[in-house]
Amino acid sequence: xxxxxxxxxxxxxxxxxxxxxxxxxxxxxxxxxxxxxxxxxxxxxxxxxxxxxxxxxxxxxxxxxxxxxxxxxxxxxxxxxxxxxxxxxxxxxxxxxxxxxxxxxxxxxxxxxxxxxxxxxxxxxxxxxxxxxxxxxxxxxxxxxxxxxxxxxxxxxxxxxxxxxxxxxxxxxxxxxxxxxxxxxxxxxxxxxxxxxxxxxxxxxxxxxxxxxxxxxxxxxxxxxxxxxxxxxxxxxxxxxxxxxxxxxxxxxxxxxxxxxxxxxxxxxxxxxxxxxxxxxxxxxxxxxxxxxxxxxxxxxxxxxxxxxxxxxxxxxxxxxxxxxxxxxxxxxxxxx
Length: 337
What we know:
The chain has helices at about 15-25, 45-50, 60-65, 65-85, 115-120, 125-140, 150-160, 200-210, 225-235, 250-260, 270-275, 285-300, 300-320, 325-335, and strands spanning about 1-5, 35-40, 55-60, 90, 105, 145-150, 165, 185-190, 215-220, 240, 260-265, 280. The chain is of the alpha/beta class and about 325 residues long. α1 links the parallel β1 (about 1-5) and β2 (about 35-40).
C-alpha cells in the first residue's frame, strides 16, 4: 500500500516529534510498501532521522512560506500530487486538505476551539485562521476517519463542528524517567513566539525572580535541538512553567512529568486532562496567581517533591495508555480496503 502524508507546516515542536513517531511506526509496518511525505523544507530533523527506503520526502517550499499558496495546495494541489504519485490512501497530519483518496485526518490544532487564545492574535492572523478552520472542518467531514489527541479536543470538535473523532493517546514511547530533578531550582519555559503562548508572563517572572533562581527558555527558535538535548534541559530543571492558553496534547507536560520536573500550568482543560493532580495550577488570566504558585514551589521542597512524585505516576499511566499509533495505522489500512 502506498501512503501519502500531508505535513506542510509541521516543522517544529510537538507536531514535529509526533510526525517522527508516526513515520517510524508506519515504516515498520509491512502493509505500507511506500510512504510519500509532502512536508516543509525545514523538516530536516525528521528527514535526517528517517532515511528509510520506504519514505520519500517531497518538500513544498512555496506552500510552506506563503498563505495563499498553502490554501491552494490544501484545496487543489495535494489531491493532484497524490494522483501523480499513485497513492492508495492519505494521512493528513494537520487534519486539513481535500483529497479524493481514502483519508485519515489527525488534528493537532487546538486554536480553533479556544476563543481566549484566538483573541491574542492579530486581526490578519485571525482572518487566516478562520479560513483555515472552515477548510479543516470541511476536510474532517470529508475524511473517512478523524483522530485527535485528547478528550477535550474531541468534545470541542463535536460541539463546534458536529464531528466526533476518535481519541488516540500517543505520547512518544520509552521516555527516560527520573524521580527527582537534580541541581538548582531552575525554571524552564517551553513555547513559541506566538502571542497565545504568553512568553511575556515568563519574562516578567524572570525580571522579578532572577536573583532567586535560574531561568531557561526553549522557544520555536530551538527547534533544531534534538529531543535528547531538550530532555536533558528538562532533566536540569526542577520546575516547568507552562503559560500557553491552549494546546492539544501538551507534549512538554508529559515529558516534564516523566523527567521528574514539577509542572506549573494554567487552569485549562488541556493541562488538567494531561496532568490531572500532578500539576500545580494557577488562575489562567492572573499573573499574580502564577507568581504566587512559582514562589510557593521555589520555597517548599516538600511541595515540589509531592508534585514530582504525582507526575511520575501520571507519566506512567499515560505511557501505559499509549496506543503507539496502532489506531492510526489500522485506520489507514481499513479505509484503504
